[in-house]
Each structure stands twice: as structure tokens, then as C-alpha cells.
Design brief:
The complex is a heterodimer of chains A (499) and B (460).
Chain A (H helix, E strand, L loop, with lengths): L14 H11 L4 E17 L2 E19 L2 E7 L4 H18 L17 E5 L11 H16 L6 E17 L4 E18 L5 E5 L19 H17 L6 E7 L1 H13 L4 H4 L29 E4 L20 E6 L2 E2 L6 H6 L9 E2 L8 E2 L3 E4 L8 H6 L3 E13 L5 E13 L2 E6 L2 E6 H6 L1 E4 L6 E10 L4 E9 L2 E10 H4 L3
Parallel strand pairs in A: 4-6, 8-15
Antiparallel strand pairs in A: 1-2, 1-5, 2-3, 5-6, 6-7, 8-22, 9-10, 9-14, 10-11, 12-13, 15-16, 16-17, 16-18, 18-22, 19-22, 20-21
Helix pairs in contact in A: 1-2, 3-4
Chain B lengths: L5 H11 L5 E16 L2 E21 L2 E10 L4 H13 L31 H17 L2 E18 L4 E17 L5 E7 L8 H14 L3 E2 L4 E7 L1 H13 L3 H5 L6 E2 L3 E2 L10 E5 L33 E5 L2 E2 L6 H7 L10 E5 L6 H6 L3 E5 L2 E8 L4 E6 L3 E5 L2 E6 L1 E6 L1 H6 L1 E4 L3 E3 L11 E3 L2 E12 L3
Parallel strand pairs in B: 7-19, 8-15, 14-23
Antiparallel strand pairs in B: 1-2, 1-4, 2-3, 4-5, 5-6, 8-24, 9-10, 11-12, 11-14, 12-13, 15-18, 16-17, 17-20, 18-19, 20-24, 21-24, 22-23
Helix pairs in contact in B: 1-2
Classes of the chains: A alpha+beta (499), B alpha+beta (460).
């Protein structure tokens, strides 16, 4: 369904004032109303045929209140006055029911009212206004180009696009109207070999907080990537299987962003470190008592949380608890110096103001602590990727993310990738197959010898970071340069399967 | 907000299509949940949701195409039908095209949607309040989640079909940790009726496991005999079915591929005559007897909405029995169409015994009470990686003798079936990893040889 500008996102006049006043009179310490419309499109082609065309508009409103130290939340798909008034009563009833087992008061850290705020992410063409036929046509062209190359047996191409309109009003006086647009195009090719063998390879272009223009080359050179992919894939199919052992790794940002996400992004969420995700997403080895002292990694490790970076998937002016988007340090010179905070956690730990890490993926979901764009800083004037490779006598260069997994405390991780090149005496020496790298977080980042310069820096990310119960997904970006990590354990995945 | 009756939404949508091929689905949902951590409730919420899906089928050059529009709330059906029709008319022929399912209105179609009942949480919360106090008094902290959802689905087609299904879903999960973080355990119950959830029993199970963990044992990575309780088995079997696409297998890109564009259907996966199946009539885990599809894929088709769902055997007598296709794909591949089911059962006919019985039969091995962060590593073998979590125990001489450090595993559920030494009786299970999406499963405990623990995890 193509939604045109003739369908603006509107919130009925006076709706939020009435709801917030009702909550205030009911004695709520805090109340925030979100009214949202989220337009999502998924288009997928398989071998050039249209396989999936899903087009969804989710709309509704959710009210979170805090009264007598207990949280209540209620949400509905409606956007009318009567429904909004009922939300107050239902949220309060929920808070009362939960109070039967509430043993600790919830307090929210102070946040000033920001008045009227209007903001939208930078984009030129809202993907929701692009007709399906044009989307199919572009993906079909991409598919045909790759499928025509020798050695390619199958091609899948897809795009996910989201246009998120969000209205937020709270008792502190913030009234924010914001629009975020994001797209994620992908193409994966399959090459079949002898005896049932096969390999796959996917484009490395990251998801971005951009509009449809991204697929037309604004921000990523898709033409070059599609031209190179078939040759790289057939080379991979013919490549030798890796010999397991310890290797120096040069990791491109297209792979490293995910390692940062899992081993630093989630580990520095303070709700996890304090046990609030113990039943689901897990806790963190980076416990609160180690703030300011934990040696997270080598001095080359400098990590920030950021809601302000252009085209970031978690970039926004006002986050879901009415908190202004900020930029803050998490790891400086290898030492843990900060956490990601929502308002309840900031208050409970006495850390002062929240740094704006709360988000709900739907008007029907309650905001929970979620990740900012957590990024690894480049070295000013630092080395190129080739120069990093030049420092390695026997190692592996890794590009593109694929499989990922990490334990409940963010210690033990295992990642694979899209492409692995042997490094011999400072130069690439052909591809390898069946590679996975496995490490403990602090060992891995402690072995970070160098990061690349600004020219190697790239903003990677994902649409689907999962957390919370009921499960929520959040978009998030991670910027990083290329990096050199010494002596990492590399597995042969074929041997791991026992075959 | 007063929304129109879901049945009226279905009829208005079909009317907007003017008698042309069309499917309208309305899913009415009432959900509530209480989340807790550190011995107190944290985020508690409730929501009313209504999702409407319109599938419009049109003839296009060279075949038939479907356009799909979905939206929530009080939707504009004329607009949705027009949008779906525009998408269909501008699309190439759909590879999953098949005649819409014909039929008549079943009597239950006219019944109202199910309602959520916040009162069902009262006994759970009272149980939690007692458990919190006990935990606080014994140097422990409890975390977890209690949820209940009532979904009512209405489906109508321009070919006369009118179906309704009411699906209650609920679960309670608890994690207990010692305050020093050194010991932890997880337990869960899936139930259609939250008032049947027994927090006290779960709490007692956790207390017992924390006692086991008072002795800790450090073990190296390697291959171990393991006992997998039903919850852990559920997580591994869910992935086995998830990766059983027929078209993927024919294209040579899965563990179920055979050479020459063939599949391994009929191959023996295990000498143990397991059955892995779904069945909407399975006692205790009943689910929708008809198919509801909101978006097409290589294995599911919006054209198949409303088709009857029966017993779907994925593994029968230890052999791969069927792969997942939509009707058009099955017809193209000349295989029997087997509609997927919203539940999953692994069963060994005649098997008896519990997890505890299998532990008693284990000379030396590990008891893995739950698995976590399971991801595919290599599709050729369906090698999965993941971790143990909140409870790995050493078994010696048929008894648990202590808690063991956590591990990362690299294992294939297909190979695992072949290495099964013993299976117990199947019981209701809830996977730690996938239970949110597959709430309804019945699994046996399994004793398996040579489980590959690839490395140690320092997590505790």
C-alpha cells in the first residue's frame, strides 16, 4: 500500500492535553502519551520473481504512568478522545494490579520539558511514497545483473523500509512530533559446487537512516558492489577450508559493527548490568561497581553512545521518555567510563540525568531501555585498511556480518562473516571458507592493537535488535573503522559439525 | 474506542472488492503482562490490538498476482482494498498463485472475540509476592515474566469461506539467582490459562537447582554425553523445522538437499524412530485448524489462507517425512502439500520416563536445563551455535553432583537426533530461546552422546 502525502500523520487536537490532565488529577508522578503511525514495507524477489510484498501501517497510542512508585501502561489501536481517556484508567488499573508484587518504588530521573519539538531524519524520498512496481523493478534489475554472471545459481533480493511518525507529550511539557525514515536493501547470491557443496554471499551495504535515494546510490555504491559480488562468491566456493588456530584479524567495519553491538553495546546497558534483564536478554560482565575501573580493552578502544549522528538508525531528537538525544562516552582509552541509561535506572543509581536510552518499537509497547548508536572511534590520521593488513604476517581479513551469538553476560561470542581473506606477509592471499571467530569480550578488545583512520570509518547496523518481554525490536547503528586484533581463536565450522 | 465488529470488517472488505477474488483477515488481540526483576515488578502493560489484512487477487499479464495491505485499528477498507488491488495489478505473476480456498461459513464465525482478564494475574502476582519475600530472605533475587494473550482470528474469502479461531496463550518464566551472581536457575510453564500457572512449584524447582549449584565444578570444552530436558529439546527442534523449506532444499542450499535438485525426504535421520509433527488437535496444545498467512514467502502463501490444517509430519519413524511448501510450490514439485501447524511435538512411541529418570541412567554427563542465543552457523549441516545458561549440572553415577561452568555449543539438531541414546515421555515444554514464538510444544527429555561444547563461557 503506497501511502501518499495526502495522508498526513495527525493527532486529534487536544487529545494529549486531556489525557495528561486526567493523569495529573489521578495523582500520577509521571505520564507520557505516545501516538504513532509506523509504515513498514518488505519486498523480496527470489531469482527475479516477486516472492513477498508486505505493506503494513501500524497505528495507535500508548500511555505510561507512574503512580505511587508503580508503573502502569495501556495501549490501543485507536487515536480518539474516548479511547485516550480510557487509557488513563486502564494504565492505573495495571499499576494497581502489579502493585501486589511491587517491592521497590520506581522514580524517574528529572528531565526538563522541551516544549514544542519538530524533527525529522534526513531523507530525500520517503520510501512509503515509492510505488511497489518501482521497488520490484529496481530489485529485479539488481537480481538480473548478478544472476547473469557465470557460476551464480540463485539470487535473492529484498528491501525493508520503515517510515515512523511519532508524537510524544508528557507531564513535563514536552510535545514532540518526529519522523524517522530507514531502509535496508540486501542481495544474496548462491553458488553451487560439486557433491552438494555450496556457498552464499550477501551485499555489505548497511541499513541506513536514509530514504529511497539510498538504493539509487546516495550513500553506497551498489553498482560497484553488485558487479564485484559474483566473482567474489565463485572465488569463495573454490577457496580452501580454514585451518583452525589463532590468527591476527583485520576486521572491516562491515563485520566489526556487530561485534561492537553484541559485546559493547548490550554490555553497557545499565539495566542489564543491574539485573533487570536477567530473565531474558541477560546481564553484563561490566558490573556497576567497575564503572571507572574496568579495563574493557586496549587504549585504542574509545566508544561513544550517540543519538545525534546523521543517518544513524537510533538517532532522534527526543527519545521515548521525553529525553533529549545526546552523545556520551562509554569507554575511554580502554576503560569503562559510562553506561546507557533510561530515566528509572539513572535515578536508581544516582547518576543524574538519563542519556536518553529508552524506546518502544510500537505504540502498543512500553518503552524499555534501548541502545543508542554505540560506535568505536577512528584514530585521527590513523592507518588505512591496507596498512593494517600490512602489519600482519599470518592472519585473516574479514568483511561482512553473518552468524552471531553471545552469552548471557556478554563474555563469550562467536561470529562468522561474508568473506574471509588469508593474510600472508602483509598481503591478501585469496579467500578462505568455513571461518568463525570466537573470543571472550575483554580478551578480544584487550588484543585490539590498532584502529584505522577516519577514511576506514563506516556506519553499520541493523533493524532488528531484540530485547525485552514481550519482545521488542529496535533499529540501531554502529560506526567503526577497520581494526587489527591479535591472536584470536578461529574455528573451522565444518570441523565443528563433526563432519 | 469502539471498533466495528470483526465479522463486519470482513464482510465490508469483501464487499469493497465487489465480489472479485479477495481475502480479509481480522486478528483481535488482548494482551497483558507483568515483568519483574530484583524481587519486584518492573514494566507492566496491557494492550488491545486489531490487525486487518486484505489480500486482493487480480489477473495480470501471464498469470495471477496478489496484492496485500495490512493495517491496525479502525481501518478504511475501501482504501485498503484499492491499495491491495493497485499493488496486485502492478505486480508480475505471483509464483505462489493458487485458487483461493472455497467453503462456507462455520457457525462459530458469528461469535464475539475473546476478552482478556486482568483478574487472571491475581493468583500469579500473589504467588510472586510470596516468592519475592522468600527469595529476599534467602539471599536470592527473582526475575521473570508472566503474560497472557487472547487472540481471535476471523477469516473470510470471496469464495464463501468464513472461519474463526480463538487462541489463548500464556506463560510464566522465573529466574532465580544468588545475590552474588554465582548461581542461577530458570524454570517456566506455558499454559493457555494463567490461573493454572503454579508459581510455588516453579519456585521450588528453582530452589532445588540452586541447592545443586552449591558445589561448583570446572570442566573443559569437549564432547559430552548430555541430558536435554524438554525445554531445551524444544529450542533445537524449532530450528530443525524452521530450516525445512522445500524450495531451499531443492535448490541445494540446506541440510535437507540431495544432489540433482532432489531433497532428502525419505532419508533416515535417526535410528531412533522419532516422530516430529504438528497437529492442531494435539491435546493441551490445540491451535488453529486453518492457515492464516499475512505475507507470502518461499514456504507460505497468502493464496493459502483458510486451508485446512491437519497433522503435519516432519519426521516419521526417524525418517524425514515432509518439507515445507505452499500449495503452488508443492504442486510444482509434485509433492504432498503439508500445511504448517502452530504447535510442535517430538515423540518416541512408547517412551516413558522423565528428565530425572534420564539423569538416573547417566553414568557421567551434563544436564543442560536451558539453551540460549541459538543461531545458524552453517546451513550445509544445519550447524547451530548457542550457549548454556542458568543451570548446567554435572551428573555422575545417575545423580546431579554440582553445577558446571557454562559452555558455547556448536551442534546440529539433525545430527543430534542420530546420536540420541534415550528418550523419555513427551510433556508440555517451553523453549528459553524460541518459546515466545512457539508457545505450544510437547517434547521428550533426551539423552544424547558427544554433544559438542566448543568453548567455555565465563558467564555466570
Amino acid at each position: 500500500m503506497t501511502v501518499t502525502p495526502a495522508h498526513p500523520f495527525e493527532v486529534p487536537p487536544g487529545l494529549s492535553d486531556a489525557v495528561l490532565e486526567r493523569a495529573r488529577r489521578a495523582g500520577c508522578e509521571h505520564a507520557e502519551l505516545r501516538v504513532e503511525r509506523i509504515r513498514s514495507q518488505a519486498v523480496a524477489l527470489r531469482d527475479g520473481e516477486l516472492e513477498t510484498a508486505a505493506d503494513d501501517v501500524e497505528s495507535g497510542m500508548g500511555l505510561r504512568v507512574v503512580r505511587d512508585g508503580a508503573i502502569g501502561f495501556s495501549a490501543t489501536v485507536g487515536r480518539d478522545q474516548a479511547g485516550a481517556a480510557a487509557l488513563v484508567d486502564e494504565a492505573l488499573e495495571m499499576a494497581s494490579v502489579a502493585a501486589r508484587a511491587t517491592r521497590a518504588r520506581v522514580e524517574l530521573a528529572e528531565e526538563p520539558g522541551h516544549g514544542e519539538v519538530e524533527w525529522q531524519s534526513p531523507f530525500r524520498r520517503d520510501p512509503a511514497t515509492v510505488v511497489l512496481a518501482d521497488k520490484v523493478s529496481l530489485l529485479a534489475d539488481w537480481s538480473a545483473r548478478v544472476a547473469a554472471a557465470p557460476g551464480i545459481d540463485h539470487v535473492s533480493a529484498s528491501v525493508l523500509a520503515v517510515t515512523e511518525d511519532k508524537f510524544l507529550a508528557d507531564l513535563a511539557g514536552t510535545v514532540a512530533r518526529q519522523r524517522r525514515v530507514r531502509v535496508h536493501p540486501r542481495l544474496e547470491a548462491v553458488a553451487l559446487g560439486e557433491g552438494g557443496d555450496f556457498e552464499t554471499m550477501r551485499t555489505l551495504g548497511p541499513p541506513a537512516g536514509r530514504g529511497w535515494e539510498y538504493l539509487e546510490g546516495d550513500g553506497w555504491d551498489w553498482d560497484a558492489e553488485l558487479a564485484a559480488l559474483p566473482g567474489l562468491l565463485t572465488d569463495k566456493l573454490a577457496a580452501p577450508s580454514v585451518v583452525a588456530g589463532r590468527f591476527d584479524l583485520v576486521i572491516a567495519p562491515t563485520n566489526l559493527w556487530l561485534t561492537i553491538h553484541e559485546s559493547i553495546g548490550h554490555a553497557t546497558e545499565l539495566d542489564r548490568a543491574l539485573g533487570y534483564e536477567a530473565a531474558y536478554a541477560g546481564t553484563s560482565f561490566a558490573t556497576f561497581d567497575q564503572l571507572g575501573s574496568l579495563h574493557y580493552g586496549s587504549p585504542a578502544l574509545n566508544i561513544t553512545g550517540d543519538r545525534t549522528v546523521e543517518h544513524g538508525l537510533a538517532t532522534v531528537a527526543i527519545y521515548d521518555e521525553g529525553v533529549e538525544g545526546q552523545r556520551f562516552d562509554l569507554v575511554r582509552g580502554g576503560t569503562l567510563v559510562g553506561y546507557q541509561l533510561d530515566r528509572a535506572i539513572a535515578s536508581a543509581t544516582g547518576l543524574g540525568r538519563s542519556n536518553g536510552c529508552a524506546f518502544a518499537d510500537s505504540p502498543l509497547h512500553i518503552p524499555i531501555q534501548r541502545m543508542a548508536n554505540v560506535s568505536l572511534a577512528a584514530a585521527p590520521g590513523g592507518p588505512s585498511t591496507d596498512e593494517l593488513i600490512g602489519r600482519v604476517s599470518d592472519g585473516i581479513f574479514i568483511e561482512g556480518d553473518k552468524s552471531w551469538s553471545i552469552d548471557m553476560q556478554r563474555y563469550n561470542f562467536q561470529f562468522t562473516g561474508q568473506r574471509f581473506f588469508a593474510i600472508k606477509d602483509g598481503e591478501l592471499a585469496g579467500q578462505l571458507r568455513d571461518v568463525a571467530y570466537q573470543a571472550t569480550t575483554t580478551d578480544f578488545w584487550g588484543a585490539l592493537e590498532a584502529v584505522g583512520g577516519e577514511a576506514t570509518y563506516l556506519l553499520g547496523g541493523a533493524f532488528n535488535c531484540g530485547k525485552g518481554q514481550p519482545g521488542q525490536v529496535a533499529p540501531v547503528s554502529h560506526g567503526c573503522p577497520s581494526a587489527l586484533v591479535r591472536g584470536v581463536r578461529v574455528l573451522n565450522t565444518r570441523e565443528e559439525s563433526g563432519r | 474506542m469502539s471498533l466495528p465488529r470483526p465479522q463486519d470488517v470482513v464482510e465490508r472488505g469483501l464487499a469493497a472488492a465487489g465480489g472479485e477474488p479477495c481475502v480479509v483477515i481480522v486478528d483481535e488481540s488482548h494482551e497483558a503482562e507483568v515483568r519483574f526483576a530484583n524481587n519486584t515488578t518492573t514494566t507492566n502493560g496491557r494492550r488491545r490490538d486489531r490487525r486487518v489484512v486484505v489480500v486482493r487477487v487480480c489477473e495480470v499479464d501471464g498469470g495471477v498476482a496478489a496484492g496485500v495491505a495490512s493495517a491496525s485499528g479502525d481501518v478504511d477498507l475501501d482504501e485498503m482494498v484499492a491499495a491491495a488491488e493497485a499493488d496486485a495489478r502492478s505486480s508480475p505473476p505471483s509464483p505462489d498463485a493458487f485458487p483461493l480456498v472455497a467453503g462456507s461459513a462455520e457457525a462459530a464465525f458469528d461469535e464475539p472475540p475473546g476478552e482478556g482478564d486482568l483478574g487472571a494475574f491475581a493468583p500469579v502476582l500473589d504467588g510472586l509476592a510470596e516468592a519475592f519475600d522468600r527469595a529476599a530472605g534467602s539471599d536470592q533475587v527473582l526475575s521473570g515474566f508472566a503474560e497472557h494473550q487472547m487472540d481471535t482470528t476471523y477469516l473470510g474469502t470471496s469464495t464463501g469461506l468464513r472461519r474463526r479461531h480463538l487462541q489463548p496463550t500464556g506463560a510464566v518464566q522465573l529466574v532465580a539467582r544468588s545475590t552474588d551472581g554465582a548461581r542461577s536457575a530458570w524454570a517456566a510453564d506455558a499454559t493457555a490459562d494463567l490461573s493454572h500457572a503454579d508459581v510455588a512449584t516453579l519456585d521450588a524447582r528453582l530452589a532445588s537447582r540452586l541447592e545443586w549449584a552449591r558445589r561448583s565444578v570446572s570442566l573443559d570444552e569437549g564432547r559430552y554425553e548430555v541430558v536435554l530436558p524438554p525445554d531445551s529439546v524444544a529450542d533445537l527442534m524449532v530450528d530443525l523445522v524452521n530450516y525445512s523449506g522445500g524450495q531451499d532444499a531443492e535448490e541445494g542450499r540446506t541440510v535437507f538437499s540431495a544432489e540433482g535438485g532432489k531433497t532428502r525426504v525419505g532419508d533416515r535421520l535417526s535410528e531412533v524412530p522419532f516422530s516430529l509433527y504438528g497437529d492442531p488437535a494435539e491435546p493441551g496444545i490445540e491451535c488453529a485448524p486453518f492457515l492464516v498467512v499475512g505475507a507470502s514467502s518461499s514456504e507460505a502463501s497468502v493464496f493459502d489462507n483458510g486451508v485446512d490444517v491437519g497433522r503435519a509430519a516432519w519426521v516419521e519413524d526417524g525418517r524425514l517425512a515432509n518439507l515445507r511448501y505452499h500449495r503452488a510450490g508443492a504442486a510444482r514439485s509434485k509433492v504432498r502439500f503439508v500445511a504448517p501447524v502452530d504447535n510442535l511435538v517430538l515423540e518416541l512411541d512408547g517412551a516413558v520416563g522423565s528428565t530425572e529418570d534420564l539423569v538416573a541412567h547417566t553414568e557421567r554427563g551434563l544436564l543442560l536445563t536451558c539453551l540460549w542465543y541459538i543461531r545458524e552457523v552453517d546451513p550445509k549441516t544445519l550447524l547451530l551455535t548457542g550457549l548454556t545458561r542458568d543451570g548446567v549440572y554435572l551428573v555422575e553415577g545417575g545423580e546431579v553432583v554440582g553445577a558446571v561452568n557454562n559452555f558455547r555449543f556448536n551442534e546440529s539438531p539433525v545430527d543430534l537426533l542420530a546420536r540420541t541414546l534415550e528418550a523419555g515421555a513427551s510433556v508440555r515444554a517451553l523453549g528459553r530461546e524460541f518459546g515466545e514464538w512457539v508457545n505450544r510444544s510437547r517434547m521428550p527429555p533426551l539423552r544424547v552422546a558427544d554433544f559438542n561444547m566448543s568453548s567455555i563461557s565465563a558467564a555466570s
